[in-house]
Amino acid sequence: MPDLTNETNQTNEIDPPETLSGYGAKRRTALSCMAWAGAGMLWTLSGGVPGSKLLSGTAQAAEVDRHAFSFVQISDSHIGFSKDPNLDPASTLKEAVDKIRASNEKPAFMIHTGDISHLSKPGEFDTAAQIVGSAGLDVHYVPGEHDVLIDDGNSYFERFSKPADKKWYSFDQGGVHFIGLTNVLNMRGGGLGFLGDEQLAWLKQDLTRRSSSTPLVVFAHIPLWSLYPQWGWGTDDSAQALSLMKRFGSVTVLNGHVHQVAQKVEGDISFYSAMSTAFPQPAPGTAAGPGPMKVPADTLRTLLGVRSVNYVPGQMELAIVDTRLSV
Ligand SMILES: [Fe+2]
Question: What is the value of pTM for the model shown?
């Protein structure tokens, strides 16, 4: 058995962002996590201090399996967009949902990290909700800036928030605490995301009641890390939110907006940007600016995809598996 004990995210170094070229590295991370489970290595958290032990018997492994679960993330479906490189994002969203439906194990639920629509039109929301609903899963949404273009976002919140008057929320699943944040209202200069004092105060209150050993999964549309602020790929006041999470031993932050896989590890916090189901965007700094990237028709689906996130109790890191619509 390979020695995997050093393959954790327990580093205080700030790694540079990995973009599409880092996809292989990301897959290795996921495979490593799965190797831990398969090899019977259990990561433990005791009083917030990480450790590890070998599972001695099948009973313990079965206990871990019983509480393991997965969920899926889709993002940036941009229903209503109709230009190069994708004239019909409804069809690629449907392909993404079909891929989720075809998976061997039913996910516990789905999250959609925003830009459901392209122009916040009721018909776009209708089409998206119908296709996403065909997965037969409970769906937790957060808005993208394309979803709040009209009516201060109220048409989005009335339709997709649960309850409708809440612009941010949390819920628990299998011992993991999930937090959905909105960072596309009152956006800052250059397109940076913004959380605002009211949301930060709510977040502080929400986290106060949690033990440091509770794994956190936070999701928002715009990255909560400085992926590429020159293009607005960051959130102006995210440092305040992240400081509230520093005492937690396992924090996973998921976002959309940038339409490509990227990841970063900062202390105990792991950040992951997801692919779109509609169109790719250029890697940071490789074009004049962000926006739909024109690619050949036979390449498009290799740059679109869905994400599965697997949680195994006791493991420090959730296993992230990004699957493209075609290879
Ligand atoms: Fe988007």
Answer: 0.83
